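For consistency, the fold was encoded as tokens, as this record shows:
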Amino acid sequence: MFRSLVALIVLSTLVVLIPLSRINPAVAASQDPRTPPQDPRTQEPKTQQELKNPQPKPADSKSQKTEYTAEQIAESVILIYGTRPGLEQIRRNGVERGRITRFGADGNAAEEANYERRFVRGENLAKDKIRLDQKLPTMEYSLIFDDGKLWGVINGAAFTPRQEASADFISQHHHSIEALLRYKECGSTLTLVGKDSQKGLDLYVLDLTDKDKRKTRYYISARSLRVLWLEYEEGVPGGTPVKYTRKFLDYRIVQQTLVPYRIVLTTDGRQSQETRVLTVTYGVRVSDAIFKNPEA
């Protein structure tokens, strides 16, 4: 597998993989899907040596075209985000703090909340432990996910979250970058849809289907191997499915792993939520007590 990954990295004419230990903050800057990436070759003049000894062009670029499998692309994405061992060790537990803004049908901000997300990584997504504390102007409450179950806590008492809130929480967890980074652990299957080009961006398009038949489509930059956005559909049986798009922006390096600090969710083309991460710290001790149901 290691040799195949090296071949992927060396032979690709579209992608240059850079070890995360050498990435600086400038490389980790925001990459908006709406803005074409800047090609560094157009920003620097050729050296005198290059002018004297130009590199010969391939006689036939089509003959050098290389096809990659869905697994090869996914493994390269994992390498860019921090390597499988690195992600497993560094992101085993942690605390994330930020702000969530939800928008109404008219496009105006309808609700804002500060949040704190504490988690302990399990052997797969279903075994993760997550506690999401949200503080709104009028109330505070928590959503807790443990052993595949979700419940809420308010004023020390457990409650059953509204169906909409539960669906949003589960969707955010299973239709995520993390689901792609841990596709093997979760027993998910990958399908390479193909290559695409949108607004100047060359993209790999991958479909991921988990054990519960949830499907997520990922749009991955062929240049940086970052997930730029993902799409999925959900809806009540017999009803019209709703299309969701989650965009990942403002990538930064956190403890040698790659993290988007701004996430925008659109619902049938309308922006419905924006999450801005303020701080992320991995390796923080998280007590199992915070995930206990007070009524258990």
In short: The domain at 87-291 is CATH 2.50.20.10 (outer membrane lipoprotein receptor (LolB), chain A). The CA atoms of residues 193 and 265 lie 23 Å apart. The chain is about 15% helix and 40% strand. The two ends are 45 Å apart (CA to CA).
